Amino acid sequence: MSKALFRWTAQGHPELDFSRVDRLWWYPPQVPFQITNVPQPEHYFGSPLLLWMPRKLWKVKLVCPHSDCHKELLTSAGIHQRIRQVISLEITYFVASEYLFCKRCKRKVISWSHDIVSQLDVGHRVQFPCILTSKLACDLRVVTLMRQRGLGNSSSQIRRKLQESHSEVWLKKTVQYLTDCISLAMAVKRSLINPVTFSPPPPMPTVPKHRWLMQVYAQDVLQRLTEIKAAVTSIYGRILKMDSTKKVARKLAGRSFGTATWATNVGNEHGQVIMSVHTASEGFGLGPMVEGLIKRYAVAGVPPPEVLYVDRDCCGNTLLRRMFRKWKDLNIRLDIWHFMRRFSVGCTTDSHQLYASFMSRLSRCLFMWDEEDLTALKIAKRSELAGNLINPTEADVLKSISRSELALHCRRTTRGSQETLALIRNLIQAFDGDNGRDTLGVPLINSARMSEIMASQAKHVACIQDPPGIQLYTRTGTILKGEHRLPTYRCARGSTSLESFHLHLNRFIPGTLASDVFFQAYLLDGLARWNEDRAVAATTDDQQPCSYNHLLRHAANSLSGEVLGKEIVPYTEPRKYTGELLGVEYLYHQTGKILQDYRKAVEESETTDLEIEERFHEPEDCEDITVPTLEPDSVGPDNIEGYGAVQELASFLVGFRDRNLVVTEDEVNHIISLWQSLSDYDKCKTVYSKRHQAHLKQGRFRATKKIVAPGVESTRRCFIGAHSPAQWPDCNRLVEALFVRLCALYPNAVRCEGKKISRFTMVVRMYKTIRECIVSNARIMSETTIQLPEVNAATVTQW
């Protein structure tokens, strides 16, 4: 490659021969099959070179990117002296580039800069294969691996995969080099010539740390920011759903920490998210978001949506209805699942043996299956059973139909207000009193509470009915079942699909904390990819190019339209970005702050937060000065270090044994500081052994909340505690240290108001006071993972 690309000057220095530059990629020569000379390591460990000279190779006109030059044409100014190393999937290669000179401002620009690459047309732009940072560069194939956010796709795992692939390639080259060395050494030995000395192979290039990969991923998102925003804000829907969650906002760190409480999302009937904002509170703070949605529909000329499903503020002249007053024909409906959950509060506990049956029959009181669809499914299942040499009865056919088959092939409709009210009253009456008791005699229904719920929720029965004349089901395809072809449907009713999205939304943000700028980048890229997946699932089941690059897909369609006269990719180009605020931008608009420039934030992070390239060859086991050093005497009874920090936190918590749920702000800060000094072992949540499994573990009506009636759960715990082994092996070290101190304070029985109280009763009483102080403080529970489980005197006595 050096002979073909370089020439020697009169002074004996190599220089680039521009007359021979006729391609982008230059590869090292192949190792000869017959070794006649001493093998040199550089022949085996050579790396490809990308010579990026767009003006020289393609004769394109490039203008100065500086605003004060008024698009002055750039001229060539030789080759840039610096060569960049690029981290690829299996190897590292190098990039060289040309200098471009502006005659007006007398400044030089490197042709690999983003301002120059973005001036090229799509066909030439996509040939630049990497993203550059301050010192290194990353191949786009590595970046593609990080774009799919979710479980099992962390930057640490991708870094380990890169380390493994780079190591295998380096080992293969090393084995090939050493094999040729041995072959030549044996030949020399047989010819009785003096032995030959061989050079050792070069060390394997170091793979950067995972944090550098995250910086590259953020850089990639920020370069496509306008395109991503346009992909999110150009989506519409006929049936909308709106819901909020607190999980995602907890990951905001830095100057945004604690400013956001809710993440509100608006979805459509296809499962796409058309708006996602972060707010400090629900309700009035969503006004600008609603105005932006109304404006988006009006500017695009799209008819307003027909239905909006919510979990609150549905009936009457609510604040939400006043926000959407410009959409006069919009039906605001209550999500039926939230309606059912309100009735579950009238049950004594969701662990009751009849709880699942009650909730399942409550669903039947609200819905009825379409007779035509149900008949077609029965016929198909009967034919399917008959094909297995079975003469099925009606009962056999009904038993063979699963819930998933019903939901896939049969549509449901609501029964109407009057019939629904009558059925709910009959259901409550059927499970009330002695009819709803379990084997221990515990009733399912709390009669007084259920009466209040029935009186307050009766007005919402009309709100959960299907809007007349609005199609809530979409036919997605057909399935052959028992020689009968059945249609498949997708239901747009309710906000359940949007609530399931919250789990994925939380995974869009890697780790547990992220600054506002990178939080915004992760969120927008995740939303764009999520919407693209939902769009593909809603339109076709056929195989098509799985690419989220809107620029490439649009260019392919435009060029094929000009050349072939037709489009080759089923794709609808997103409209122009409408300027609506998304994510953290909406939060700062509310608070009057300004979200700093994305590109500037990435550059600052590269120079301050990320020091990988400055200490690129630092060993993996280097000391981190930010982690406190454990003292030799901090080993606990279980021979695990960090017990001293546990003792300090336990000593401070003992001081709350006489409190009345009052914790000052300084005490909260001190508790959080002591918790942060704990080791990772003590910060992890304790997994307790299974004691009682009387409640439903799976299914739609599984136990999700503990709705406890006075005396019910305490009776069960005492009963189980008397017949089960001690629970102490499951407790964390903090609880153990806390009880050690409380038991030392009460070595004997105590007399209180003339009564003798056992020491264990006093210990449990003080422990409960401490637990209530901690659990009732929202900030402690949100910023720490302190676990103080419920215990009773019997448990402490066993311990």
From TrEMBL:
<dbReference type="InterPro" id="IPR046616">
    <property type="entry name" value="DUF6729"/>
</dbReference>
<protein>
    <recommendedName>
        <fullName>DUF6729 domain-containing protein</fullName>
    </recommendedName>
</protein>
<dbReference type="Pfam" id="PF20499">
    <property type="entry name" value="DUF6729"/>
</dbReference>
<feature type="domain" description="DUF6729">
    <location>
        <begin position="1"/>
        <end position="222"/>
    </location>
</feature>
